[in-house]
Every structure is written in structure tokens, then in C-alpha cells.
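FAQ

Q: What does a record look like?
A: Structure on top, sequence underneath. For example:
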């Protein structure tokens, strides 16, 4: 991300920044990779280290299924009916690099929350609302990707019932390196630019004493910290590390005369995984082109697709909110008849999020309850 500032900050970092009564605001450097990654500096009314009580709550890692035969999988997330706040997460797949799940949020979070292990990325399938953070407030709408950096205290307040796809990463989530120059600026051939990213819109500062609960996820457990002050006590900040949103409508698809490979859809990346956006686009324009993808084997990569809108041109039996998993080691591609049916088509209106992982994904046991058990055999003609 690029440099931003919000609120009030002193002229020089690491110097005295005084309140009207002469006391000091508390400076916090928040960064990644020690002091060699991206960082921001925040100024608080109170010490961010002030904790009244600390308590271990419970383990929060999902239970994975036992190893089964290697096969393609299909899960209907619309069959999940439990609703609540944005901490009620139905994890479906994961590995040591990330967790993937869905959320159906219809109530605001009663506690504040932070992930102490890595960044979080939300895709808003439907619904609208606000993400309140220590960096300020972000409003969201359908199609938004919302990135929340590691260690950020936040809470999500839906204004209408919201369906999220969520990725909990154990690393930083950023734009692809090949789309940035040596200075970090997005290049001309990138399918998006800095204008498409929105940071916090308004910094609302709370100068309040009291007891405030912050739930912290770290090391596979949920912890409770009771602060002696409101966690949104920041009066100003600046830097390169902050929450942001990017709407999938602003992804400009890369097309060609013949079918383009999946990396042209890449939008973000983390350690050992990438996130891609399949958006409405014109099809290939070679006179003998086949718009449907060719059959392919994932090389050292599992492929997960979350289907949001439209009719995905290479698949049958897919619903809104379907998730398919095509694991490495066996080929996959269009369903019978889909290759032929694509010939001569001019455009697709599909909308989907793809996550490719470079270590195998494991399936959470509960996901079996919403699985299409016959999906592996839907390629039989």
C-alpha cells in the first residue's frame, strides 16, 4: 500500500507530542518483519500496553478430517444457517498457512477483536456495514475485499445481513510483486491501481476510561484482554500499514486472442497462497478460440473457487456460495459439454474468488455435512 495519514500527528516521529494539559500522547510503532517491513506510527491517549486482566479462553483451531482418497470436492455454503456476529466463523478448509471459512453476520460484534497471527482478508458476497478499527472506520458493500493487518483491533458492525468469505492468513497479504516497480508503485500493466484502494475514511477517537474486552487470537488459542481504556483512543497515525478495501468491480480483466492462464486473475498474495478474481469479461477473440479453460493439472497447487454470481461457464451444478476444491496431483477442467458450449460465446458474467495454495488444503470435518458427495464423478460422460 501507499503512504497515508489520518488525524493529528507531530511534525517529527519519536519526538514529544503533548496534549493540551502538557501530558504526552503515547507513540506506538506497528510494523512487520521486525523493523524492516511496512509500518505505521499511531498516537494514543493511553498506553496500548495497559491491560487490567489477561485470560486464556479456549483453543480455536478447527478439527480436520482423516486422510481420504484424492478427489475433487464441492461444498454448499448456502446450507449453513447459523448466524451471529463476525466472530462466528464456519471454517471449511485450511493448512499451516491459512484458514478459509464463511461468515453470516447479522449482529454487531460485542467485543473488540484482533488476530495476532497474521492478516485477515474478507470478501463481501452480500450485505453492507462498517468495520471500526483503531485506524478509523471503513464502510463496506457487496464485492469489497477488506484487508485487516495483523494486530489491528477492530469490530464489524453489519447494517444489513452480511455474507463474508474469510481468509485468515499466517502472513502478510499484499498485491502481487510482479505488478509493482522497485519503489512499490503499481505498474501500468497491473489490473488495478492505487486509486482503486480505499483506506479508513474517518478516525473517531474515544478518550474513555473503563474496562473494555479485546479478544485476541494467537498461537491456536483465543485470549481475553481487558484494557483500562477504550481501544480506539488513537488521535492520529501515518504510514503504510493500515486496513483497506478494494472492490472486485475495480479489477480490470486481462484478456487475449486465446485463453489466458489463471495467473492473469491474480489480485493478492500471501505466503504460499494467492487470491484471484474472476470477473465479467470479454472472451478470447481468435477466430478459432475455445473460451472454456483447457484441462490442466495443478502443479504443486490446490485450487479453491468460491462462486459468487453468474453462471460459471465451465461448471455444472454450482450454486451461489458454492466452494469447489481441486487438489494437486490430479487434473481438472470443464464439465462434459462445457468446452463445446463455450465456442462462439462473446463474454462471461461470472464472478468468483479463487484461492490457490502451494501446500495441500485440509478439509474441516464439519464441511462434510454440506458436501456434494458425487462431485468427483460429474465428469463421467
Amino acid at each position: 500500500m501507499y503512504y497515508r495519514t489520518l488525524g493529528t500527528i507531530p511534525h517529527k516521529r519519536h519526538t514529544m507530542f503533548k496534549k493540551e494539559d502538557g501530558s504526552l500522547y503515547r507513540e506506538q510503532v506497528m510494523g512487520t518483519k521486525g523493523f524492516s517491513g511496512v509500518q505505521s506510527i499511531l498516537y494514543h491517549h493511553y498506553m496500548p500496553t495497559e491491560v487490567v486482566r489477561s485470560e486464556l479462553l479456549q483453543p480455536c483451531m478447527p478439527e480436520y478430517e482423516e486422510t481420504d482418497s484424492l478427489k475433487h470436492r464441492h461444498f454448499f455454503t448456502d446450507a449453513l444457517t447459523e448466524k451471529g456476529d463476525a466472530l462466528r466463523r464456519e471454517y471449511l478448509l485450511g493448512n499451516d498457512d491459512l484458514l478459509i471459512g464463511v461468515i453470516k453476520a447479522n449482529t454487531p460484534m460485542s467485543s473488540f477483536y484482533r488476530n495476532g497471527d497474521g492478516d485477515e482478508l474478507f470478501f463481501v458476497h452480500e450485505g453492507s456495514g462498517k468495520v471500526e478499527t483503531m485506524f478509523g472506520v471503513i464502510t463496506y458493500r457487496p464485492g469489497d475485499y477488506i484487508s485487516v493487518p495483523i494486530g489491528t483491533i477492530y469490530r464489524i458492525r453489519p447494517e444489513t445481513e452480511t455474507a463474508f468469505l474469510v481468509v485468515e492468513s499466517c502472513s502478510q497479504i499484499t498485491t502481487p510483486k510482479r505488478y509493482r516497480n522497485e519503489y512499490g508503485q503499481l505498474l501500468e500493466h497491473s489490473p488495478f491501481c492505487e486509486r482503486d484502494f480505499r483506506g479508513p475514511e474517518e478516525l473517531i477517537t474515544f478518550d474513555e476510561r473503563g474496562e473494555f474486552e479485546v479478544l485476541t487470537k494467537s498461537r491456536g488459542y483465543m485470549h481475553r484482554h481487558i484494557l483500562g481504556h477504550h481501544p480506539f483512543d488513537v488521535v492520529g497515525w501515518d504510514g503504510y500499514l493500515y486496513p483497506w478495501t478494494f472492490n472486485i468491480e475495480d479489477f480490470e480483466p486481462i484478456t487475449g486472442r486465446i485463453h489466458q492462464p489463471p495467473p492473469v486473475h491474480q489480485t493478492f498474495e500471501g505466503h504460499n497462497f494467492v487470491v484471484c478474481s474472476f470477473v465479467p469479461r470479454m472472451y478470447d477473440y481468435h477466430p478459432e478460440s475455445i473460451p472454456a479453460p483447457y484441462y490442466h493439472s495443478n502443479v504443486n497447487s490446490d485450487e479453491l473457487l468460491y462462486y459468487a454470481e453468474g453462471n460459471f461457464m465451465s461448471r455444472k451444478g454450482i450454486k451461489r456460495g458454492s466452494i469447489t476444491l481441486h487438489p494437486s496431483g490430479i487434473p481438472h477442467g470443464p464439465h462434459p459439454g462445457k468446452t463445446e458450449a463455450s465456442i462462439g460465446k462473446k463474454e462471461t458474467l461470472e464472478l468468483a474468488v479463487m484461492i490457490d495454495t502451494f501446500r495441500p488444503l485440509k478439509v474441516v470435518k464439519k464441511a462434510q455435512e454440506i458436501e456434494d458427495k458425487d462431485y468427483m464423478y460429474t465428469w463421467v460422460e
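Q: Is there anything notable about this one?
A: Residues 338-342 form the longest helix (5 residues).
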